[in-house]
Design brief:
It is rod-shaped and about 90 Å long. The protein is low in regular secondary structure. The N and C termini lie far apart (67 Å). It is built from 1 helix and no strands. Residues 26-35 have a biased composition (Basic and acidic residues).
């Protein structure tokens, strides 16, 4: 399902089926639309444990 089904006009006869109508986005629309969010705010720093040199001598 790429888009919601069109709304059918109600006639004189009553409906015997469900009245529920999905009004949100379809799975296709959800996957296609990129998520818009702010990038996280943080600073990278060196860990104090890995500053020492590793000489083979």
């Amino acid at each position: 399902l790429m888009s919601p089904e069109p709304v059918k006009k109600v006639g004189l006869l009553p409906h015997l089926g469900s009245r529920f109508r999905y009004s949100g986005r379809t799975h296709y629309e959800t996957k296609k639309t990129p998520i818009e969010r702010q990038p996280p705010q943080f600073e990278r720093s060196l860990s104090g444990r890995r500053i020492t040199s590793r000489s083979m001598d």
